[in-house]
Amino acid sequence: VSTTSYKVEAREFTDAVLSCMFRTERDQNPRIEWKKKGKDVSFMYYDGHFRGPFEDRATIEGATVTLKKVTQEDAGEYRCEISAPLDSVSLGETNVTLIVLVPPHTPSCEIPSSAVTGSVVQLRCRDQQSIPPATYSWFKNNQPISVPRQANATYLIDMQTGILEFKSVAKEDTGRYSCQASNRVGPAKMCEGKHMAIEDVNITAVVATVVVVCLVIVVCGCGGLFLHRNGFFSRKFHFRSFVCRVFFFLTLITILSSCMNSASVNGDIVFILSKKTDFHSFFFARCS
Question: CATH for 7-101?
Answer without folding.
Answer: 2.60.40.10
